[in-house]
Amino acid sequence: MHPAGERPISVGVAGATGYAGVELTRALSRHPHTRLRIAMGSSDRPSAASPRLNRIWDGEIEPFSVAALADADAVFLALPEAAAAEIVPPLLDRQVRVFDLSGAFRLRDAEARARWYPATPTDVAESAVYGLPEHYRDELRSARLVSCPGCYPTAALIALRPLVKAGLIDGHIIIDAKSGISGAGKAASERTHFSECHGSVAAYGVMNHRHGQEIEQELDRPVTFVPHLVPLDRGILETIYATVAPSVDESSIANTLGSAYQDAPFVRLTGRRLPEIKHVAFTNFCDVGWVLDIDTRRLVMVAVIDNLLKGAAGQAIQSFNVAYGFDETAGIE
Ligand SMILES: NC(=O)c1ccc[n+]([C@@H]2O[C@H](COP(=O)([O-])OP(=O)(O)OC[C@H]3O[C@@H](n4cnc5c(N)ncnc54)[C@H](OP(=O)(O)O)[C@@H]3O)[C@@H](O)[C@H]2O)c1
User: Fold this and answer.
1) Which pTM value belongs to this model?
2) How confident is the model at residue 5 (pLDDT cuts 50, 70, 90)?
3) Domains: count for the chain
4) What is the DSSP string of 227-264?
């Protein structure tokens, strides 16, 4: 644990003017063990922080500078992946611990990484720890580079990984995922601006989404992953369809998930009471419910998170807490 009286960890945020970056700035400015040393946007001039942070954090958004970031003990990167890929190596060279929210360092397979994240340097990628604390707690303790999971993979893996690892799932898995629009970042595109999204739901990236690759990596099996944009500002709900192995019953599912998450402060298992986005919005929780039809062996799971917290900023701080030996919930209770 962090000894009482020891100096706080000095932290920096790059991408502090983006959706995930504002959440990082808010939480890190009030975290009991950090001092928010610097927060940056992409500009070369200082600017005022978002009005959302009034009376929470009184600092100014500083011009983007790798050298200034490198003066912090730990840095959170909420940048586009090509920008993160470029600045992670010099930060690591300066002994900074890096918590990268982008996808740049998530994929371990070099060919897949070259396809989805071509700017990522291979040698550095090999040292990254996948920042899903519920499954990589031990590895995080010594990590220098933490690659935080994608928002869709976070919900899917928390629901499925214990069951797949225990051999409870038989056959193919389908993940039908719905995300609020903030998952796409703050810059509006034709797909994400209000008049396109409001009153509509659209599937996209079918059989062709980098988060599908990431889920397959962590489950070590193929899945059918179909993301949808829904007209919400934040939140993800995934409905997961699978067939369980013969002899698997309600108690095998409940016991496997229960023992996987008995010490996980942010996973709430709800059983047949299926969770909804509103149950987790503005929190770092992932709620997982399920219904098993024992006669047909069909299992339906529902997993929900807030994409900007458990899917991004909150999870990165959770990994930071584990990496530094703080209470896992510090600053994100
Ligand atoms: N949104 C989510 O739900 C979510 C979930 C998980 C992971 N992520 C990942 O987290 C990262 C940030 O996502 P976001 O949704 O917060 O994005 P965003 O809203 O688009 O914000 C991007 C941030 O990066 C800054 N930036 C852009 N290009 C830059 C450059 N070349 N150099 C320095 N700064 C630059 C922007 O600064 P300006 O404001 O000055 O342009 C802004 O602060 C992405 O890699 C994303 O994939 C996002």
Assistant:
1) 0.97
2) low
3) 2
4) EEE-S-SS-EEEEEEEEEPTT--HHHHHHHHHHHTTT-
